[in-house]
Structure formats: C-alpha cells, structure tokens
C-alpha cells in the first residue's frame, strides 16, 4: 500500500571526495567532520527536518560503513519515523554482481521503487557535501505556485567565479531558458547549487528515457536538465541569498570552518530557530588549564587545553599540551598536540598525534609567492614525529595501523 507524501528527498551522499585527498581516504565526503561537532551531511538532513520533510532516502556508494553507522535510525534528526523517516539506499544489486551508480540521474533511477512507495507529487534532490541552512518548504511553495516541472536553487556569484559553476540563464520572471556548464564567458551569475525540486511523474519519464540512452552520462546537469529545457518544460530558478559553500576541496573545507569564527560570514550555528542536529558521543565539559590562552576559537566537549589557541576549531576530546601553539587550525576529535608543537593553517584529522616540537603548516605571510603556500593536512591516526616539519600544502597519510 502506498503512503502518500507531498515530497520525498533523495540525498546524494556517495561521493568519494577525491579533492579532499587524505581526509576521504577512509570515509565518504558527506561523513567528513565539520565545525567542531558535526559532519557535512548533518546540514542537508537538518534542513529537511526543519523544512517539515520527513522522508529522506540517502544514496550511499563510496566507503559507506561509517556514514551508514552515523545515520543509523535517524533519531538525532527526528527521522526515526513509522511513516517515512530516513533510509540508506546503496547501489542496486542484481544477481551475483553489484551495479554502481553511473551518475546522479542513474542513482535516482535505481531507487524509483523507493520513491513510488510514497507516491509523491514532487522529489527534492540534494547533494550531501554542502554547508548551508535553507528552508526547502519555501522553495517548494515557489515551485508549486509557478507550476514548474523543475525548480533549481541558484546563488549569485561573482562574474570571475561563474566559470566554475553550472550557470542558469533566466528571463525576468525567473524562468530558465538556458543552462551552461562552466561557461568560459558566462551570460549571468546565477550558479546552480545542486538543489532540485522535480515534478515526480515528469521526472520519472525523463529518468526512464535517459536510462535507455546508451550515450547518456546519466547525470542531471549533463542530461536530464538539458533534455527538459529542449522539450520546453517549465523550469524555474529559485534565488537563495544565504550562506552556502561547497566543501569539496581542502581549502574550501578549511575556509568554511574559519567562517564559523567570523561574525560577518552569515552562517550562525547558535540559532534556536534553525538548529543543525548531529549524532554526538557524550563527553565531559572541556577544561582550560592555567597556562592556556584561548582567543576567538571553538572548543568542543572533552577538550583539555593548556596551550595557546588562536582562531581555531577543535572537535571533541582534543588535547593541547602546555607550550603548544595553534593558529587558524582545524583539529578533529581525539587528537593530541604535544608540548611545544606548532600547528598553523592546517587541518588535523581524528586520532592524530603531533609530537613534541613538531611543526605543521605555516602563516601565509611568510610566503611571498602565494603558489608555494597552502593548507597542511594530517590524516586520520597519523603521527607527526618529534621535531618533524610538515610544510604548507603537504599531506601526511592516515596510519592504517592505528
């Protein structure tokens, strides 16, 4: 028996995240920690619940174990429902062989049975690797009022940045007449955010036709959206003006964490009106020792701080020993920064050890040539030995034995 829903969310969370390098060597990109106590996927999941959407399919693929375990029954996001809730949807298995998702459209196609179980009028398609707060119910109202086949959320970017995005060219009423994928000479600055609402009966037809085309990339941006435009479907651009960041690179992930410390960045995680929910282990309160110096930083539960901390984000259970100095650093859970160590402009993954006197990263002011500087990264469980120097842009691989 079908359980009728106005809208169902399909959350694409299978990305390998190759541009995050050592940070995604063992986990999928949506499972990467963010902001002291969250993971990236917490943002779209929380947005769904805050928007009144209670049925979410999470499409996993690359290294799904940790992500699946983290989501569990969906209780932290109030998605442990009898009628709806959150469902983990791995690639479809037929016979003896599994079938990987070939593209974003194919991922939805393989899970049409899940969608049809709820007989929705519309389907919301999201990416699991963006940091933002958004009320999808307002976008849905816009979609319905305009009688659109598809509505695509867009964000105004600078003309210089526009060539990095899929650009929606629109009429005065917001209707889309052209889509350009990373144009060299963009005609507008309306960048696609990878957030789509589709009329489900229409989308279903396009997915079936696309799957039958052996030349298709089975991708929304490359195939489904252009096909809809070519057929004259009504497609609308929904303007979003809040904070949004694609954290698909080391630099953008570091920048997004730093934005949490900047009151002018337009991202506020302290609001009770739009909370971001997460699954967190219980920890005692953090402790600031007598030798500590903490300025403009996020320090999460279970931390033990006796060193100097400037403009940094610390996850739970981090230890910073006396004489250690951190500046513009992102340090993930259960890492130890030993005496006299220096960590600057760096990301340190979980369970790492930075031994006494080691140096990780450096201030960009010390590099007249900007191409020589970048964020230093230490992988999960890695050990930076006593006195070792990890230069800017250098990456220390995770320790598989820890």
From TrEMBL:
It is an enzyme of class 2 (transferase). GO terms for biological process: glycogen biosynthetic process. The record marks 61, 100 as: Could play a key role in the communication between the regulatory and the substrate sites. It comes from the Bacteria. CDD domains: ADP_Glucose_PP, LbH_G1P_AT_C. The keyword GTP-binding does not apply. Belongs to the bacterial/plant glucose-1-phosphate adenylyltransferase family. This is Glucose-1-phosphate adenylyltransferase. It comes from Fumia xinanensis.
């Amino acid at each position: 028996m079908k359980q009728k829903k106005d809208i169902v969310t399909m959350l694409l969370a299978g990305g390998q995240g190759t541009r995050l390098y050592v940070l995604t060597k063992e986990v999928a990109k949506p499972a990467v920690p963010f902001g002291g106590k969250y993971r990236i996927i917490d943002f779209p999941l929380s947005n769904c619940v805050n928007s009144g959407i209670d049925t979410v399919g999470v499409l996993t693929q690359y290294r799904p174990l940790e992500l699946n375990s983290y989501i569990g029954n969906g209780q932290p996001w109030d998605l442990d429902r009898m009628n709806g809730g959150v469902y983990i949807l791995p690639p479809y298995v037929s016979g003896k062989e599994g079938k990987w998702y070939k593209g974003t459209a194919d991922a939805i196609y393989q899970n049409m049975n899940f969608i049809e179980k709820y007989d929705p009028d519309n389907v919301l398609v999201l990416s699991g690797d963006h940091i933002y707060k958004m009320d999808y119910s307002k976008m849905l109202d816009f979609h319905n009022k305009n009688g659109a086949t598809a509505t695509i959320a867009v964000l105004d970017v600078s003309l210089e940045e526009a060539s990095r995005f899929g650009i929606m060219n629109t009429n005065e009423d917001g209707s889309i007449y052209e889509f350009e994928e990373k144009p060299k000479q963009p005609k507008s600055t309306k960048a696609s955010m990878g957030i789509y609402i589709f009329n489900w009966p229409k989308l279903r037809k396009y997915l079936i036709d696309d799957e039958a085309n052996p030349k298709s990339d089975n991708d929304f941006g490359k195939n489904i959206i252009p096909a809809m435009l070519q057929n004259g479907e009504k497609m609308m651009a929904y303007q979003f003006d809040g904070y949004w960041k694609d954290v698909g690179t080391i630099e953008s992930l570091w920048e997004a964490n730093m934005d949490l410390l900047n009151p002018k960045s337009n991202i506020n995680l302290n609001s009770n009106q739009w909370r971001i929910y997460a699954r967190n282990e219980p920890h005692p309160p953090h402790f600031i020792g007598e030798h500590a110096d903490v300025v403009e930083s996020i320090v999460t539960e279970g931390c033990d701080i006796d060193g100097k901390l400037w403009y940094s984000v610390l996850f739970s259970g981090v230890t910073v020993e006396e004489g250690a100095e951190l500046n513009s650093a992102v340090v993930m859970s259960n890492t130890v920064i030993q005496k006299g160590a220096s960590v600057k402009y760096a990301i340190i993954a979980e369970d790492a050890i930075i031994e006494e006197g080691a140096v990780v990263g450096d201030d960009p002011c010390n590099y007249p040539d900007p191409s020589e500087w970048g964020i230093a990264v230490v992988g999960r469980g890695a050990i930076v030995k006593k006195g070792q120097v990890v230069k800017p842009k250098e990456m220390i691989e995770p320790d598989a034995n820890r």
